[in-house]
Amino acid sequence: MSYETIQVTPVGGAIGVEIAGVNLAEPLSNRQAQEVHEAFLANSVVFFRDQTLDPEQQKRAARLFGEPVAIPFVKSLDGHPEIIDIVKEAEDAGKYNFGGNWHTDTTFLETPALGSLLYALEVPPRGGDTLFADMYAAYETLSDGMRALLDGLTAVHTASRSYGSQSKFQGGRNTSVSMKIDASEEGDRLMEHPVVRTHPESGRRCLFVNPNYTLRFKGMTEAESRPLLEFLYAHCIRDEFVCRFRWQAGSVAVWDNRCTMHRAVNDYDGHRRHVRRVTLQGDRPH
Question: pLDDT tens for residues 10-23?
């Protein structure tokens, strides 16, 4: 695909491009906004460098892709319910890293996030990369028989492992000293989504399960579901489906949560990392 107003450089073989020639702090022309959105849909995750965004500018930039929305359980930035600060302090060494498991955001909700815009304010001198996996490719490379099986299945999702009454964040455990996470019984609720969803804008089919929030298949026990789910999780993160982004201060990533998984790599104990996220309102998967 060719573009007139932006420069696009692939980051991975399957997904991910870096976009140059855009200042997200300023309103974009209609043509440039259209091309940025086209690159987003075509590549599932887009990256920008050397940006300087205050909270209002970050929310305006996020509206190029969707409508900002508040999320449950994680305390938002004062005065900005649609923004959360994700911080790991140097003294948080040895704790669970927020976002450190492969996941698709908020699939425990009836309308999981469309995507997110993540902006880096402070990064460690090394490490702290984010990985993104292509769930289109994961589905499309399965056998005809496996696709036929999965097309008829529903998965049960829950936030119980992260935000539930017995979760890893319950009672403030594992939380960075600079973050506030309100784990509660609300996180134990169950939500059903199709195992394979159709992207509402591209029309393509993709897998829609993830290790953090998918509990089991509907009508099956966790034990019965586990072998197939574990196969799918391993398949989704094959090297050829994954791109890796190395952060710098001022970097921005925007991912399409409807057709990707992601994971924050926890390899920078003893250093501070501060990123700011705007989450975008999604739809009910079909």
Answer: 999 999 999 999 99
